[in-house]
Amino acid sequence: MATSLPIPRDSQSKLVHILRYSAQVFSEHGFEGASMRDISRATGVSLSGLYYYFESKQKLLYLIQKNTFTYILDRLYARLERVRDPQARLRLLVQNHLEYFLSHPHEMKVLSHEEEALDEPFRREVAAIKRRYYTLAREIFDGLAAEASPPALNPRIAVLSLFGMMNWVYKWYNPEVDPGAEELTHSIVGIFLHGVLPSATEHPEFQLAAVPAAESEET
Amino acid sequence: MATSLPIPRDSQSKLVHILRYSAQVFSEHGFEGASMRDISRATGVSLSGLYYYFESKQKLLYLIQKNTFTYILDRLYARLERVRDPQARLRLLVQNHLEYFLSHPHEMKVLSHEEEALDEPFRREVAAIKRRYYTLAREIFDGLAAEASPPALNPRIAVLSLFGMMNWVYKWYNPEVDPGAEELTHSIVGIFLHGVLPSATEHPEFQLAAVPAAESEET
DNA sequence: ACAGTTCTCGAACGAACGTTCGAGATGCCA
DNA sequence: TGGCATCTCGAACGTTCGTTCGAGAACTGT
Asked: Are residues B47 and B95 in the same domain?
């Protein structure tokens, strides 16, 4: 199926156009399973024409991953700046992640599913961004654990389990059945903080602190 | 690198041998990224010789997935038979999953990562087994929720989040750093049932049948 | 030793792959 | 209008892919 949107004229936004549709093709067929001819068809750019913008298929995957990751991470940094409460910060981490996920499912799947398809030296570069993301999440968690007497829980496992819950979403999320980003955030944060069992007291609400919905135009 | 183990003589166990090493190749290069020549090299069986045992690359992937899934599911059914306590049943689900995971990382990765590489009609068949697995997990969870007054939590999201925590393990697990199946099970079950925040009472132990009356004063 | 089944593999098939190249179109400033 | 840089693409390249085929080796029961 060919592109429904018209192909942008100027070079800059045509590049973005190609990145966008390539992410969709990669997410549907996998990086190895998708051919440059598939991408040519999906973008409306000729096979050889693609190579005017990207020097290789690897570089194309690299740019998708780097752009996506950088955007998510920068946005999270910005949103965290005004928030100090540990639980609110954790909630922001999850919300930021899931909002991007649900609004850019193809890019997010490429990020989650095709990391190993990248060869050196690109692999190393994306891994560095990912490490920054993990480190930030770990700091948020440590702030949370410092708030109260921490349970004897391996923080590495805790943080990676949280990422597991979030990143697995692309395998099952169905917009016709499942709730939006806000409620999904609420559920996952709730499980992570309090578990699925009732606390024998009343039902906890996690809407702490003054977290503005942070409805903002991006930079 | 050629096979280190000798290739079995009889047909039946040679088939198993090929399945085993193919799973490793698929897990390292991905299904699309792995070639039949890679598998030939890894198993020590000639390229054309492979087709005496499997009619296609697709069928090979199918057999790996079906065998692995069926084994895990059957084993779980057997282990659950003697256990009625809801929390113990949940713990058994996680333990069974993670034990297989840590002892057969290649097969588990193929199961988690290559489900979409399978075409029809194989895809449908594996999906049916997966649905049985999910249904069983859902029943275990419902039993848990029925035990005490359930919190207003979407059970679908809860179960799929649990699978997220478990299935994401293959992305980060490092045997030199991370704990074994038992402790990992303990941690993940702990997060799922009680969350990472302390209950303001003493440190909870999850081994019990009845719900400990955790008086909690959350933040 | 023979016949028949089971198993093995080198060689080759057409198709699809990522990438290249040079000729031609298009846009922009003189 | 002319000259130059930017952009486009059909055609082809060498390689690798999954799969097939037929000849022969190895095993089995007699």
From this structure: no
